Amino acid sequence: MKQISRRELLAYTAVGIAGSIAATSLAGCAGTAKLADTSSDDKPVKTEVPTDGVYVTRALGHESWIYVSTTLRDGAIAACQVVRNSETIGVGNYACARIPAAIVQHQSVNVPNVRGCSISSNAIKAAVTEAIELAGYNIEDFSEEITREKTGDKVEETCDVVVVGGGTAGLIAAARLAEHGAQVTVVEKRDIPGGSMAMTYGGIISAGSRRQNAYDVTGEYSATPTGNLDMKMEALRGELLPGNEDSDLSFCRVMYSEAGPMADWLSDVGVGFRTMGTFEGATSIANGLSFAPGMYMGGVGYTMMFLAERIEKFPNAKILYATTVTELIKDETGEIAGVKATGENGSEYTIRARAVCLTGGGFAKNEEMVEKYYPAHAGQFFNCASASTGEVIQMGLDAGGVLDVFGDGELPAYLSSKGLVELAFAGMTSPGLFVNTHGVDLGSCVSHSNTAEVKLDDANGDRFFLVFDSTAAETTRKNLLLGFDTYNCLFEREEAVHYESVAEAAEKLDLPELQAQIDENNAYALSGEPDRFGRTMRPYIETRDGIWCVEVTPTFYLTTDGLRIDEDCHLLTEGNEIIPHLYAAGDTAGSIEKKDGLKYSYGFDSASTFGYHMAEVIARELSL
Ligand SMILES: Cc1cc2nc3c(=O)[nH]c(=O)nc-3n(C[C@H](O)[C@H](O)[C@H](O)COP(=O)(O)OP(=O)(O)OC[C@H]3O[C@@H](n4cnc5c(N)ncnc54)[C@H](O)[C@@H]3O)c2cc1C
Question: Which of 171, 196, 417, 565 to mutate to test the pocket of ligand 1 (most atoms within 8 A of CB)?
Answer without folding.
Answer: 196
